[in-house]
Amino acid sequence: MSKINSFVVVLALLLVAVMPFSVMAQEELTIQGSSTVLPIAQKAAEVYMEQNSDVNISVRGGGSGNGIAALIDGAVDIADASRFVKQAEVQAAVENGIYPVPHRVAMDGIAVVVNPANSVEELSLEDIKSIYTGEATNWSEFGGPDMEIVVVSRDSSSGTFEVFNEITLGKERLTKAALLQASNGAVAGVVSDTEGAIGYVGLGYLSDSLKAVKVNGVLPSNATVASGEFPIARPLFMFTDGWPEGLTARFINFILSAEGQALVKEQGFVPLH
């Protein structure tokens, strides 16, 4: 065998030996949960992976409740949530050897939105309560057109659902006529396609196809959420099992950095600094 052929064979064997090691050396991070936090997690993951080629980050939605349940089951590294963890979830986690630790990554306002064709510009918290409990059923009751109100809500696995209901409904029940949707995007789609619809979405989901109404005289925006003026607001979280280490810690620190918080703002949410 010639020296050249021998070199080729040796090089091929080295490549075969090294390639599996390279694949095994790639770090993995899995994130699941809130559809509100989803755009932040997706954008941060995209930028982080561009800067770190040896990292693979998987991000999916499904709702805050499902994300926290996945963390309790040990199925994910990070659970995105638009609400705080419940005591029952903490108890279930501890029984499973999991210790949920919250990391606040952004602030958000829950914008109440109607179809752009609707002339209503403003609602009070009491108005919203009367609509979502089913007491009010026609837009004419609020100075709008003589048109049936189509109530659109998130489903019960959503952290946005829980925070919105707590702030607007108190102890009252959501009307059974409400159309339940699995994500912010789904709510936005129904409201933009239905002239009489009303719904609610995180700030990052506002667009020209929706009209945000004033709540108690205040429009939802980064400024009014940051100032505390807008009445339907909440922090956004990422939960980890215990204090994070390794890639999990580096990724959360990235989101909390100036660069990460700029991405939060870019996605339409309120940065922490």
Structure description:
The protein has 273 residues and is α/β, with parallel strands linked by helices. The chain folds into two domains: 3-107 and 235-266, Periplasmic binding protein-like II (D-Maltodextrin-Binding Protein, domain 2); 109-233, Periplasmic binding protein-like II (D-Maltodextrin-Binding Protein, domain 2, 3-Layer(aba) Sandwich). It is 40% helix and 23% strand. It has helices at 3-25, 38-51, 64-72, 87-95, 125-132, 159-168, 184-193, 222-227, 246-256, 258-266; strands spanning 27-33, 55-62, 78-81, 100-114, 122-123, 150-154, 179-181, 197-202, 211-212, 214-215, 233-241. Strand 6 (150-154), helix 6 (159-168) and strand 7 (179-181) form a beta-alpha-beta unit. The model is unreliable at 7-13 (pLDDT under 50).
Quick structural gist:
This protein is of the alpha/beta class and 273 residues long. The protein contains ten helices and eleven strands.
Helical coverage, percent range: 25-40%
Structural class: alpha/beta
Write down the domain tally. 2
Question: Count of helical segments?
Answer: 10
Mean of residue pLDDT values: 92
Report low-confidence residues grouped into runs of 5 or more.
7-13
- The CATH superfamily of the largest domain is known as Periplasmic binding protein-like II
Shape: globular
Main location: membrane
Subunit structure: The complex is composed of two ATP-binding proteins (PstB), two transmembrane proteins (PstC and PstA) and a solute-binding protein (PstS).
Family: Belongs to the PstS family.
Protein name: Phosphate-binding protein
